Amino acid sequence: MKVLVVGSVAFDDIESPSGTREGLLGGSASYFSLAASGFTPVDLVAPVGEDFPLDLVAPWKERGIDTAGLEVVPGGKTFRWSGRYRGEMNAAETIRTELNVLGTFRPKIPPALRTPDLLFLANTHPATQTSVLDQVKRPRFVLADTMNLWIETERDALLRLLKSVDGLLLNEEEARMLSGERNLIAAGKRILDLGPRAVVVKKGEHGSFLFSAYEFFALPAYPLVRVVDPTGAGDSFAGGLMGSLASGGAASLGALRRAMVHGTVSASFAVEAFGTEGIAAASAKAREARYQEFLQFVSI
Amino acid sequence: MKVLVVGSVAFDDIESPSGTREGLLGGSASYFSLAASGFTPVDLVAPVGEDFPLDLVAPWKERGIDTAGLEVVPGGKTFRWSGRYRGEMNAAETIRTELNVLGTFRPKIPPALRTPDLLFLANTHPATQTSVLDQVKRPRFVLADTMNLWIETERDALLRLLKSVDGLLLNEEEARMLSGERNLIAAGKRILDLGPRAVVVKKGEHGSFLFSAYEFFALPAYPLVRVVDPTGAGDSFAGGLMGSLASGGAASLGALRRAMVHGTVSASFAVEAFGTEGIAAASAKAREARYQEFLQFVSI
Questions:
Q1: CA–CA distance from B212 to each of B88, B166, B218, B241, B249 (Å)?
Q2: What's the pTM?
């Protein structure tokens, strides 16, 4: 099955208790693609500036990531994000955001990419996400990410989007904000009423929840003794999840549970190193070993 | 198998978003006994004051809780705790603590209670916990609770205790404080080195971890749409866990995993109502139904 991600490619500057790194390859589409390509070929649509050295993503071809949809904006500069993690590293502190080419990005999906089986709408303005949906033949499963900014400032556009997606991925705080419910279980149920048939709540080191009309499902995070850089954990989770769904062939609830384990495993590799280095380095063998190990961690 | 708990019986005043209640029956031994008695008979040792109306615990006999070890301290007043929960209710804010008879409690285990198969040392001064261990024939499994106060002020006594118990129950913050590790997984592993062969970390709404020399195990919390009063969740968890171990006959790692699910279920009943009302009202049928439901929530 064909997987398409529309999102960002970025340069990230990261400060964490493990050190400081500048100009790391980052962005939602990068993390997602690297995670999903462990399972299935991936098409990527994202903007970069003229400053972006395309040889950075040349090795991705061998992994089955087609970067034909990487749009080099003439005269533009690549999106750059600088962030800091401290203490228990539960939340990033944004030092600086330079949207650059991302600020004016109106994705045009190339004709060859308009029939994805699975589509991941990485976090951007909900109207932009909707415009992507309008350009593609209805995929089997559409998963959207969002953020607190859009929930606060673009609620109507977001609510419209939610009527057209199959799954919504968001973190605890966002789930509470979107639903108006303080209790996270109540929040998940309330969001189901807004349209998606699957709501995945990411809880960082506390794992994840899946809400659907028929069932509730909960997973812990993969237990890591050391987290180096949590950036991209959510997009890597989404990549493992969608890759697993693509390789399994269908988005049944059983498949979604297994896909969430793969998402959990992908996220664990992502946060073990700076930037995309961890998820890029995770071999099929290492991923499978961690998947099996994880099943032991949660079996009763 | 015989289960003994040494802890507190208290009056609690609780403020939560669900309302305000005064003079609720509380205390670690109360929550523990009510949860464990769903599985097995329980003996309780705890001090109360002359102000304690013994008819409050008279109905416990029918549940298999033997209150012969309830020590009425002449001229004493019952331990009283006033606390408040706000917002996401993750932590209690203590308004007032009146230790009263608990402040001078030196438990004397009645001769008939000195051969428990399982022993729960509820949270008190670690030297007091050790004195209980010194009075009983070595049980098959000893589980101890503790708190931030003892970790900070009585570390040596606590470290001595840890060399003599099988399991330690503590929350996230306490695990970090005791181990000096910020990462919770590293913390759990470090605490194993201090003596216990099982370390159970309670994470409230985020579930629980089990660390042992051989394995790691993680569970989410039971998903509740509404939490009324989190007081006693940890002691109810311990009660369900130890009750399950007692009824199963052994503390194998497989039995511990199932016992943690029972602990999770017990805690979920406890927090659904004020004081001990929730755990006291949970029928065997309701507990079994929630246990089976929970297995579905976490099965992959």
A1: 31, 10, 12, 16, 19
A2: 0.93
